[in-house]
Design brief:
It is a single chain. Helix content is about 25%, strand content about 20%. The protein is α/β, with parallel strands linked by helices. It folds into 3 domains: about 270 residues, Alpha-Beta Barrel (TIM Barrel); about 230 residues, Rossmann fold (3-Layer(aba) Sandwich), CATH 3.40.50; about 120 residues, Sandwich (Immunoglobulin-like). It has a 6-stranded mixed beta sheet with strand order 11-16-15-14-12-13, sandwiched between helices. A 5-stranded parallel beta sheet has the order 1-4-5-7-10. β14, α14 and β15 form a beta-alpha-beta unit. α12 runs parallel beside α15. The protein binds beta-D-glucopyranose. The site of beta-D-glucopyranose has 6 residues, from loops.
Length: about 650
């Protein structure tokens, strides 16, 4: 090691366990290098300490969009693009990504998280981390763990049974850890009564020992209540600086609660992080303009076409009106990246793409602010007689934000009225939704011809949405979370914890696992997304590769005359089980580019974990011998092919860690 722990005094070592300000680490009286940590995940949100302002950076599409792309290459590109902004601004570690499972659509930070499904969340987060770290910039996988809503996030304890933790809330971390993030950030909340920052079982026994994480564990900002207790639980670094932190560590040491060896173990992790930040591989490979172009490409990949009656999209031309508020590029809080990019309006972008075919106008109802819509009357008048009307609706960074949950999953009354009134005078209404999580659209979904869920698409939003609406780009995103008919249908309904505890009563039945089990209709299922192309599935084979590994292969054919991409999903169903298991679970997926008329063989591999449940009796993952179905779908409710296998493992191979 370049930095020798022996050169540090005990006092310097104790002081090193907390930051020196909000963003930087201690330097032990200048013996150690400066390390700067900065948010993430939607672009660099870095404080300029001299000017006391946030630096401008590329505002990338939010994680909800990356998730809806179901594309690891897109997630990697996103990470690598943000890393270039980090290198340019001398940020060493990006405080991202967050992989907390979307348990309720009310969670204020859902736009920052990937999915209701841990496999999808973990797989994409892994690629994002690899993208950032390929540039010599560190990441912080957060928030470990069971931080699934914002309500009273500092104090309310998440009460989760072990099987649910193991099967739903930990696997996204476990999978993402394969990318070896430099740091993991603990969450604010207690888990089963013990703060995440002091939870030795989670931090040491599971994260370090079972999952093999050997990087640095940092606290969320302000998640530490007592600094020797967190050090004892193997949390390495408390952020930000707190006056009493050093005194607490000293007290713990003097009273014999914390040994010097335990302090040294934390310091070693900090020194190792410092060495990594001095890595010389930091090479900027994109210009600012190229980073913006990457943002456009990523946004295009994650926009989801939810409905397209009469193939009204792509727009054919004629007299087109654009109306409604269009200003929400991202959710609020620590994830909000500030850009100096000046986007053109959607009307201008569309007019460009449809030049010679269409006249595009906008209505006086278009206002700058996301939280009001003025002049529904104007939109209503202007929409009359148009060939098509694009109505943009959005949740802004004050509706979907950190530190607060939504109280409703409907749009504001004015936005719903705008859609409904426009639909009264024009039968070709296309709604573009800019939001970060599921929206209850039941009041208006059947009154409009098309619905496009853009998500929070960052500074590239208008360009990417115009590309999709005009047909310049064929939509290829699919939902990474279920859109329920209403809030009451969700696993947690309107209920929220009481500020003391929140019981995860639904257990492993989160997201589509819940709607499947309760046989509930949904507005748009998990994995749903349309295209301008059409795809046909055939010839499923499930080949046994070893005792526990299978290769699932099938053919996907583009039967249209448009080039497109199809996301195929592989679900596994345990036909008869001794424990309550979900009807099916996502265990693999692939996004395949197919030219018009082209067909390709797609393969996905399954392993022991694809069939196992977590046995709390055995304290291990356990494969129950018997029948399993392999379901290949275009969505979780559009299964196209079904295969059957019988697993019969020798007893000593049924269990694994
Ligand atoms: C958030 C983290 C963030 C940190 C630093 C906290 O409030 O929960 O996600 O990285 O602040 O801004």
């Amino acid at each position: 090691m370049k930095y020798d722990i022996k050169s540090l005094t005990l006092e310097e070592k104790m002081k090193l366990l907390a930051g020196r300000n909000t963003w930087q680490l201690e330097t032990a009286n200048g013996k150690l290098p400066d390390v700067f940590l900065s948010d993430g995940p939607h672009g660099l949100r870095m404080r300029d300490l001299e000017k006391n302002e946030t630096k401008k950076a590329t505002a990338m599409p939010n994680i909800v969009v990356i998730a809806n792309s179901w594309d690891s290459e897109i997630a990697y590109l996103d990470g690598a693009t943000i890393a270039d902004d980090c290198i340019e601004n001398h940020a060493d570690v990006l405080l991202a990504p967050g992989v907390n499972v979307k348990r309720t659509p009310l969670c204020g930070r859902n736009f920052e998280y990937f999915s209701e499904d841990p496999f999808l969340a973990g797989t994409l987060a892994k690629a994002y981390i690899e993208g950032v770290q390929s540039k010599g910039i560190g990441t912080s996988l957060k928030h470990f763990c069971a931080n699934n809503r914002e309500y009273d996030r500092f104090y309310q304890s998440s009460e989760v049974d072990e099987r649910t933790l193991r099967e739903i809330y930990l696997p996204a971390f476990e999978i993402a850890l394969q990318a070896q993030p430099w740091t993991v950030m603990c969450s604010y909340n207690p888990i089963n009564g013990v703060w995440a920052s002091e939870n030795k079982w989670l931090l040491n026994d599971i994260l370090r020992e079972e999952f093999g994480f050997n990087g640095l564990i940092v606290s969320d900002w302000g998640a530490v209540h007592n600094s020797w207790r967190t050090a004892k639980a193997t949390l390495d670094l408390e952020m930000p600086y707190r006056e009493k932190a050093y005194e607490e560590v000293k007290e713990g040491y003097e009273k014999g609660y914390l040994t010097e060896a335990e302090i040294d173990a934390r310091v070693e992790k900090i020194l190792a992080l410092m060495e990594k930040t001095e890595n010389d591989k930091k090479v900027i490979t994109t210009t600012k303009e190229q980073r913006h172009q990457n943002a456009v490409k990523i946004a295009q990949a994650g926009i989801v076409l939810l409905k397209n009656e009469d193939n009204i999209l792509p727009l054919k031309g004629g007299d087109i009106l654009v109306t409604g508020p269009y200003s929400a590029m991202g959710g609020g809080g620590s994830a909000f990246a500030e850009t100096d990019y000046q986007p053109r309006s959607l009307k201008e972008e569309l007019a460009d793409r449809l030049a010679g075919k269409a006249v595009v106008s906008d209505s006086q109802a278009v206002v700058d602010s996301y939280y009001y819509v003025c002049g529904i009357r104007f939109a209503y008048q202007d929409a009359y007689g148009k060939d098509a009307v694009v109505v943009c609706v959005s949740n802004g960074p004050s509706t979907e934000t950190e530190a607060r949950d939504r109280t409703s999953i409907r749009l504001t009354r004015t936005q719903e009225d705008l859609i409904l009134n426009t639909a009264k005078v024009n039968e070709n209404v296309i709604v573009v939704v800019l939001a970060g999580s599921a929206i209850d659209m039941s009041a208006w979904a059947d009154k409009v011809k098309a619905i496009v869920f853009a998500g929070f698409t960052g500074e590239a939003s208008q360009e990417a949405v115009a590309d999709i609406l005009s047909g310049k780009v064929c939509p290829s995103g699919k939902l990474s979370e279920t859109f329920p008919l209403c809030l009451a249908d969700t696993p947690t309904g309107e209920a929220c914890g009481d500020g003391f505890t929140e019981r995860y009563r639904e257990g492993v039945f989160v997201g589509y696992r819940w709607y499947d089990k309760t046989e509930k209709e949904v507005l748009f299922p998990f994995g749903h997304g349309l295209s301008y192309a059409d795809f046909e599935y055939s010839d499923l084979t499930v080949d046994k590769k070893s005792e526990t590994d299978y290769e699932v292969s099938f053919t996907v054919k583009n039967i249209s005359n448009v080039d497109g991409k199809e996301i195929s999903q592989v679900y596994v169903r345990d036909v008869f089980a001794m424990v309550a298991r979900p009807v099916k679970e996502l265990k693999g997926f692939a996004k395949t580019a197919l030219k018009a008329g082209e067909s390709k063989r797609v393969s996905v591999t399954l392993n022991a974990r694809s069939f196992a449940y977590y046995s709390v009796s055995l304290k291990k993952w356990y494969v129950e011998n018997g029948d399993f179905e392999i379901l290949v779908g275009a969505s979780s409710r559009d299964i196209r092919l079904t295969g059957k296998i019988q697993i019969s493992l020798p007893e000593n191979e049924q269990c694994s860690h």
